[in-house]
Design a protein that fits this description.
The structure is a homodimer of 197-residue chains.
Chain A: H1 3-20, H2 30-37, H3 41-47, H4 51-76, H5 88-99, H6 104-108, H7 114-130, H8 132-138, H9 145-164, H10 172-182, H11 189-196
Helix pairs in contact in A: 1-2, 4-7, 5-10, 7-9
Chain A binds a DNA duplex (30 and 30 nucleotides) through helix 1 and helix 3.
Amino acid sequence: MDRRQRKTREAIFNAFTGLLAKKDFAAITVGEIIEKADVGRATFYAHFETKDYLLKELNEELFCHVFDSMMDSAVNHRHIFDCKESDSLFLHLLYHIYRNDNHILDLFSSVNNELFLRYFKNCMINLLSARKDVTEKSKPKNVPSDFWINHIASAFIECIRWWTDGNAHLAPSEVSDYFLVSVNLKEDFDEKNVDCC
Amino acid sequence: MDRRQRKTREAIFNAFTGLLAKKDFAAITVGEIIEKADVGRATFYAHFETKDYLLKELNEELFCHVFDSMMDSAVNHRHIFDCKESDSLFLHLLYHIYRNDNHILDLFSSVNNELFLRYFKNCMINLLSARKDVTEKSKPKNVPSDFWINHIASAFIECIRWWTDGNAHLAPSEVSDYFLVSVNLKEDFDEKNVDCC
DNA sequence: CAGAAATCGAACATTCTGTTCGCTTTTATG
DNA sequence: CATAAAAGCGAACAGAATGTTCGATTTCTG
């Protein structure tokens, strides 16, 4: 890829994430983006068909490698899902989000775009489907698998939204615990301690 | 309220829900609405500030009375949440949706509007908060109440979306079971039977 | 019936979108 | 290094949608 192309792409992404931090996706115009990115209008449209595609490509830029590497781990090294570390998958994602590179957090914020959430949920579902045998363990009997996978994926996303939306002071590990317990991927963490005493 | 106002309002709502059945909220224009409703442009704006407000008022028209009456039941007649009928609340809502008056189903469909889901979720959270003592029973220890309430409300909505989005052939009672089991408001329904044998 | 209120419809400024085109700068290649 | 191909510029443009305005007309209310 041409250096000019890379630079333009980068400039547009930066301008876009910068704007996303301040306002709704829907409220952002192409005009604002190109002004902030300092590129020509025609150039923008040469790179991205529409504003929606821009978001889609940003999503992929931000998350594809994460999900892909997880998918690999899931398939190759089962440990990422293994008993003791059954939470490492989710915790890893939460840390990734926590670091907030490129304002990832803003993408989850409740005022923002359905499009991104749809994409993210899809990735989660794919990932979980690749290791059905594990989700199957926590699944209540007689509930369909795809219902359960959808439930876990949705719950994870909504958990993140709850986190970013007024509970941002909590640590990823804490949020991870809440989530895992809620979807039966972990026993109640303090109950254990109580049992021990 | 003037008969003319009522009629105009009604016509706009009908045109709007009709269009929602066919296309995304975002893709619907005011022009289409007024054409289908057969009212003047100025008239539309005399009734609704924007398209978003139209959706908001439609939401209220469709769901306010349901949530309000449930809220009353929750406060006055505790039975709606009582052990045996702990599911009647959700089942009631599912039936309401199932009847699909005014194309309620379309509002949940994944291609549609974040705005409506936000509204609906808010109603659910209010409703559940009014009977915290019940959600508290199913709540895992050491998970914050508001996390748990958010979890249940979200899970319910995502359950409906799963239902309307490719599993519409299932009966409300079945979906209700899946949901309740998933959030620990009911024991696994068939496990019981197994126990009996 | 008379005044008030709602609607009409047609026009209007404004904003945003997505495209086009001729010209300039940058890059890759032989 | 020379040069053609690729990328970007910027200005202009048509088209669509938004939200407003206003005088004329219809419908309601008292």
